[in-house]
Amino acid sequence: MGDTDKENQVDEESSSQDVNELVKESDQEIEASDETRVRRQTFFRIRKSSNSPVSAYQVLPGDRWSSEEADEEIKKFLTRLAGERDTVEAADPVEFAKENDLLLLFGPDEEEEFARLALRFPEETVKSWASLLSGGSRSEAFGPRSRAERRSEAAVASELQSAVLRRLITAGIGIGLLLVGFFALKSLTGGSEEEVGFGLRFSEVSGTESIESNNNYLALSNPVTEPALVATAERVVAVKQGKGQLMDRIEVDVPDDTLPILPGVLSATVFQYGEGQIALVGPDGWVSESCVMVSVTTNNLRPLDVLYHAGSSVDCSSGIQGTKTVPTCLGSSVLILPIAIPQRNNPQEFPEGGVGWAEKVRFAVESPTAELDGWEVLSVRGTIEVPEGVENVVIPKFGGAPGDELEIDLGISSESSVAGSCIIE
Questions:
Q1: Which of 102, 135, 230, 323 could form a disulfide with 150 if both were Cys (CB 3.0 to 4.6 A apart)?
Q2: Taking the model in full, what pTM does it have?
Q3: Cβ count near 214 (within 10 Å)
Q4: What would the pLDDT profile of 37-55 be if each residue is shown by its tens digit?
């Protein structure tokens, strides 16, 4: 019996030691998670605005990203979603989301904005994040969810891909709205010669040639239009003001008397006069009554130069993009504006890396009273570019001095003859 009592005493002491060790380990775990606990206690107090921090998140249209590029863009999205919250840094966006409980912040608005970002995800990234947003096994680190809260992965994937499809359908109509807001994002404008064209090219004479020689301007010479480089403003872009989804606010049928100019009556082309120029020709009197916006872009719509001109009798809307410019040549039906047209042999370098040259010139007549009339955007637009399959197209040039009158003839538009004159400023 004595031996049995000793054995029991040893077992009790051993058990007591085990318990003490477990308590110490538990204390250590609690102590190590103090920072996480404090961070989580203020998790839902950070947000001060009723709007989502990723509302109207800007996404540059283009080809699909690689997995690494997609992870980089997702990390930017999650960082903006986190707002002012203290976060634990992690290179992998999935780990970053897990460590900071960011999946808890995904509501309908956030999923909608994330779906726009997913337009450029590779297929495996779409599947991975569809699983995470569905509350699947890979998202258990975010905390357990009730059965009512869990949504099937297939349903979420279907929602995500449906949202992507809706965005693709409306992209053709609303792409002009996304033109300028992406200066800070990386744009894949590079590629081999087989993947991109020569773009808009000047004649063999250097595009940087001065328009002056010994203080005398080049002799007056009216430009001869290149038919392949003539475009007409025919596409109406109309979006109502409001907080609803973009697709729901796009208006397809807009009364003619609401538009800043009728589709088909304004044509444009590009010339060379020392530097690049865009010539816009329309009905008599349109110049003084119009707000014109012009942007030179790469093939992937990365802006190289954005400017606008307000007619003498109008003020452009406060939402107009670009730099206000002074006309090269001005008339009642003709407006010529200076634009930068970087050449392929002398491309423009981007702050975010890479280079690009001019492949498109997009022009629009914007409604000067759009905001007052309840429109977010109301314009008639066109695009100048070298047609596919057309070769040996170069930009014509003209000469002249201030005070000279130029005669411009762009041919026949869908509505009327497109010709007129202007005085070189």
A1: 135
A2: 0.54
A3: 4
A4: 656 655 555 555 567 888 8
